[in-house]
Amino acid sequence: MSGLTISQKIIKNHLMSGSMQPGEEIGLRIDQTLTQDSTGTMAYLQFEALGLERVKTELSVAYVDHNMLQAGFENADDHKYLQTVAARHGIRFSRPGNGVCHQVHIERFAVPGKTLLGSDSHTPTAGGLGMLAIGAGGLDVAVAMGGGPYYITMPKMVQVWLEGALQPWVTAKDVILEVLRRLTVKGGVGKIIEYGGPGVKTLTVPQRATITNMGAELGATTSIFPADETSRIFMQAQDREADFTPIAADPDAVYDEKVVIDLNRLQPLVAYPHSPDNVHTVEKAQNEQIKVDQVTIGSCTNSSYTDMMTVAAILKGKTVAPDVSLVIGPGSKQVLSMIAANGALADMIMAGARILEAGCGPCIGMGQSPKTDAVSLRTINRNFYGRSGTKSAKVFLVSPEVAAVSALTGYLTDPRSLGMDPPAVTLPAEFTVSDNMIILPPEDGRTVDVVRGPNIKPFPLNHALPEQVSGSVLIKVEDNITTDHIMPSNAKLLPFRSNIPYLADFCLTPCDPEFPARAKAHGGGMIVAGQNYGQGSSREHAALAPLQLGVKAVLALSFARIHEANLINNGILPLTFIDPADYETLQLEDELLIDHAVDQVTAAADGQPVRVSVQNTGKIIPCRLTISDRQRDMLLSGGLLNLTRAGHLARA
Ligand code: MIC
Ligand code: SF4
User: Fold this and answer.
1) Residue among 77, 120, 347, 484 flagged as catalytic
2) What is the pLDDT of residue 652?
3) Most exposed among 12, 243, 485, 592, judged by the fewest C-beta atoms under 10 Å?
4) Strand 150-153 and strand 25-28: pairing?
5) What's the 121 CA to ligand 1 centre distance in angstroms?
6) Cβ of 450: how many Cβ atoms within 10 Å?
């Protein structure tokens, strides 16, 4: 028998059901969970609806990092709800100001060899420390908090073999941009990306975390690095050495695919609008003389202590170009307090940077939307259309180094062209450790009053699958539609994450402003989509808002993993065209019918196609519905909540 990969080892230790054959459904025991506020309100409402009491995980943390602007009462109300519901059920509460969930989690809680499920697509950040960390919809996280397994399709294993070492001004961001360039935004679907090779030891934990974080943009189930001496030293500096265990792939582990990257030959890279895989060299961009209006540095991808120290050193003694607005958001209270204490923060402020509190900020359009037609350079992980809050803005993804030098020159600049040496920044031997912004739950939470503001509205519940599923095509969209298209998020909409009826009026409006009205006029219907439908966020709202509008099925060329699971969890059929030509023929307002739906969905679990008839043309479209028996039961019951309430507890 051959050896195991890192993730196969962790999966083996956490397997509650299924066998580790790629393509088979497996149930995993989850050791830790995390939520953030924009998905957390819904996750805890669902946790409550499941009737669950105290969490059964080793550790669960509720973070507040997204909805921080508090332009009205809504966000503050949600924070209070999260704080009290966390105390009630045995969950730690990371207060607003403590930092971005992924940054704080890797600093304070991630443990090599354990499993983490988070209601945020960038949960794989903790894979930088050898943890199997997966992003999921809120309902799946709620079930995991209750001790239920988390189900995934056993992924294929991809090894990214790193050779050599990064050259001056080339960064971890360029490694993941190179992986994205080669594999594309759908290249990781159904796969785990493992990093190996002699180049691994040249990368620090924060560098590894940048890579695993942005691995979410590949559509991968997760990404992971081995836990080695570098990881031990990082955990020691966080005063957590006792939690360290080494983990590595066996030398004879078998991978389904291998990608080799020679770090010596990498160059500074940039993702052009509007996709993280639209990657070019910064050298090319510099030749195009791209004038920059805004630079934002931070987000869960690049907001570590070392990132901030590097940026501060580049800015020190200089002044931001007159036409550039430079915005910096350190990733955590730990990072912010350390750069405040050592003077680096003052260097940033003196150079003209606008400093934000530790949170997601501009990454999710929570303020700092750039001007009309702006060029915005950002160190974030996704530059989806409209995400900055300014529809006409062009967002380019770059490393903190490229961002900082470009903020000074006013143009997208390759730092190597300036003839300077990169700043020599090292990890501290000891981070400043204080968890005083994490509130521990009481031993017994039963007396805690859970506080609900008026912004919390009941969420839609599907009903059991009828014999006939029918409806018109309400919209036809192209490839790579993101969750930011399906359920846009920005400073105006994010405060309504616990108010689905309100949000539904914005569903898919970036693709077609008439979609919600059309859906309502038809009393619901179906969505037709291209490849990789639903890429990006884990937000369950991208399934709940369509559900609110009566969407019964999505017919697509292919789906992104988390969104497909969210649709099934809410009883919406994710159907894949067997013949891609059928996508071309379907038209807006075609009348579709799935007859004998209960029998057809039941048979689909055994691999039978689902026949969709187009009433107005008489055509039959065969589709695939790739579901396990468990998912079949969910679809028949109208979603996971109904199924669980019907007594089939989502447990192994
Ligand atoms: C994102 O980066 O898109 C978010 C906002 O963090 C989402 C979660 C959300 O939609 O609230 C994610 O990545 O899952
Ligand atoms: Fe927050 Fe942006 Fe990270 Fe999402 S990607 S968790 S919005 S910082």
Assistant:
1) 120
2) 32
3) 12
4) antiparallel
5) 6
6) 17
> What pLDDT was estimated at residue 644?
81
Which strand (E) or helix (H) includes residue 175?
helix 172-183
Residues of the chain with pLDDT under 50: 648-652
Residue 651 is predicted with a pLDDT of 41
List 31, 65, 174, 414, catalytic entry = 65
Best residue for ligand 1 mutational test, from 539, 544, 563 (most atoms within 8 Å of Cβ): 539
Residue 599: C-alpha distances to residues 304, 416, 595, 605 (Å): 52, 63, 9, 10
Q: Determine the 3-state secondary structure of 114 from DSSP.
A: coil
Between the alpha carbon of residue 196 and those of residues 6, 270, 284, 551, 601, the distances in Å are: 10, 24, 30, 43, 41
The DSSP output letter for 247 is B
Residue 650 has a pLDDT of 41
Residue nearest to atom 7 of ligand 2 (CA): 364
CA distance 110 to 116: 8
Residue among 26, 33, 34 at smallest CA distance from 10:
26
Point out the ligand 1 atom lying closest to the alpha carbon of residue 487.
Answer: 10
What single string gives the DSSP state of each residue in 184-227?
-TTTTBTEEEEEESTTGGGS-HHHHHHHHHHGGGGTBSEEE--B
Q: What is the pLDDT of residue 1?
A: 67
Given this model, what pLDDT does residue 647 score? 59
Annotation marks residue 65 as catalytic: yes
94 lines ligand 1 (CB under 6 A): no
3-state secondary structure of 475: strand
Q: Which residue in the list 29, 88, 274, 382 is annotated as catalytic?
A: 382
Q: Which domains are delineated in the chain?
A: 6-265 (3.30.499.10), 269-418 (3.30.499.10), 469-645 (3.20.19.10)
Is ligand 1 within 6 A of the CB of residue 38? yes
CA distance 299 to 286: 24
CA 519, 520, 525, 530: dihedral to nearest 10 degrees?
20
Catalytic, 120? Answer yes
Q: Which two tokens stand for residue 138?
A: 């809120």
The reply to whether 378 belongs to the active site is no
